[in-house]
Amino acid sequence: MPSPTPATRIEDPSVAQAFLEQIPVTTAVVWNRAFDMEGTKELFIEGDPPRGTLAVARPPWAQGAAGIAMHATEPRAAQELMAAWPHGPVFLHLTAEWMLSLVEPRAETFDGGVFWLFQLDPKDFVDQEGAGVRPLDPKWADRIGPIWDSDWDRAGAYVRARIEAGHAYAVYEDGQPVAWAFLHFETPTVSMMGFLHVLEPYRRKGHARSVASALVKDILRRGKIPALHVKTDNLPSLELTTSLGFHRVKKQVWGDAVIR
User: Which pTM does this prediction carry?
Assistant: First the structure.
């Protein structure tokens, strides 16, 4: 087995792109952090050919927190890449659950968890869209933002940007959205679904399946792979996702941390 090499910062992203494209669903978040997120970005690899990739994004709206996304095929590669992690607050994504054990010794604080990554093959899709699903109007962003993240003062602006990017659907009652689903981001291959929510008085009426189905059909029409994350203990969302035909890919990690 080749010996690990120190993490190397790269200016030419083509090597990392080829590595990430080998498993585009598993590495979709790393791709987003490396190539699409706003703000300053740094990209590191370990090995030649690469055994791991680290993306560090410093978006202008993150109030000092860096966006970390890391993929590695073996623990030694991940350990080398961790030497390039910035100190201080980070919002992190790890493409495999086992990497969390490497983060914990370096984290002064960690608030996060393990999520199932799902993807959908078109042949498995179970369409459950009901009547009345319509595009979600960006004017509702300031209402939806705090529901999605009540602690972030820019949640409304972020949600508006995601809705304005298109591919957002809702069920309306009395002219107001009561259920919705739209995209976190897209890569050249993958559409990462999210923001699925139904207001409490309107639950158990099939609205979640309906808006999710509309979003899936939008993604499939454009030739991309639908994918999403569900926390491992969120049983209702796990059941919903499976009922649409999604299958589990692997467990991944999301969280906020302060790195020593």
Answer: 0.94
Across the range 146-160, mean pLDDT stands at: 92
CA distance 156 to 150: 10
pLDDT band at 1 (very low <50, low <70, confident <90, very high): low
Residue 20 parent element (H or E): helix 14-20
Range 8-117+254-259: architecture per CATH: 3-Layer(aba) Sandwich (3.40)
Is residue 103 within 8 A of residue 82, CB to CB? The reply is yes
247: tokens are: 């299958």
Single out the residue of 112, 13, 3 nearest to residue 68, CA to CA: 112
Separation of first and last alpha carbons in the chain:
30
CA distances from 239 to 103, 118, 196, 208, 247 (A): 30, 12, 14, 12, 11
Question: Is the model's pLDDT at 73 over the cut of 60?
Answer: yes
Measured CA angle at 59 (ends 6, 28), to 5 deg: 65
Cα–Cα distances (Å) from 5 to 78, 234, 252, in that order, read 11, 39, 25
Angle between helices 155-164 and 141-148 (to 10 degrees): 120
Q: How far apart are CA 91 and CA 253, in angstroms?
A: 11
CATH classification of 122-244 is 3.40.50.12280, yes or no? no
Residues 87-125: tens digit of each pLDDT? 999 999 999 999 999 998 999 999 999 999 999 999 999
SS3 annotation, 113-175 = EEEEEEECCHHHCCCCCCCCEEECCHHHHHHHHHHHCCCCCCHHHHHHHHHHCCCCEEEEECC
